[in-house]
Amino acid sequence: MQDSKQFYRRKSTDWITGMDISCYILLIDATLFQENERCTACLNAVTRPKLVRTLLEECIVAHADAIFDAVKDILRSIYDNTQVTVAYSWFVFVFCLFETYSFVSFATIGGG
After folding, report:
1. Above 70 in pLDDT, residue 77?
2. Between residues 102 and 17, the one the model is more confident about
3. Rounded Cα distance, 62 and 13, in Å
4. Cα 35 off chain centre by
5. What is the number of other CB atoms lying within 10 angstroms of the CB of residue 35?
6. Measuring CA to CA, how many Å separate 96 from each of 30, 92, 111?
7. What are the extents of the domains in the chain?
8. Rounded mean pLDDT, 52-61
9. Could you give the C-alpha distances from 95 to 10, 36, 90, 98, 99, in angstroms and in order?
10. Distance in Å from the first CA to the final CA of the chain
11. Which of 2, 22, 25, 55 is 20 to 30 A from 86 in CA distance terms?
């Protein structure tokens, strides 16, 4: 699991600095789906929550400030341009991404 943690720490830093936040979120969603498929096909069922938790810690929680700042800026920009429906859709997308993987307790990720 330590190798996965280091891998996703490196990859997430490269990804978040190399693309806009909407592409980053889509990439993380796709990566979570791929890891879930890999776990289902190849790994013990006990490994899945641990791997997903590791991925979320390194790709979402570690970059939460940057993600939420970028999302706020996007929503503000869309809203300022009177595209309220698009802003709401973006908000729902981000919320659903987190909700989809809610079996991982965000309260316990930080060790609390």
Report:
1. yes
2. 17
3. 9
4. 13
5. 19
6. 14, 6, 24
7. 2-109
8. 86
9. 25, 19, 9, 5, 6
10. 20
11. 55
**R_g of the chain computed on alpha carbons:** 15
Cβ burial 13-28 (10 Å sphere, 16+ → b, else e): eebbeeeebeebbebb
Q: pTM for this structure?
A: 0.66
For 22-36, the pLDDT digits (tens) are 788 888 888 888 888
Residue 104: per-residue pLDDT = 45
- On whether the CB atoms of residues 46 and 94 are closer than 8 A, the answer is no
| Inter-residue contact 4 to 53 (CB < 8 Å) | no
Q: What is the DSSP letter of 93?
A: H
Polymer length of the chain = 112
Q: Which one-letter amino acid corresponds to residue 31?
A: T
Distance between CA 58 and CA 55 in Å, rounded? Answer: 5
CB atoms inside a 10 Å sphere around CB 108: 9
Give the pLDDT band (50/70/90) at residue 6.
Answer: very high
Residue 71 is predicted with a pLDDT of 77
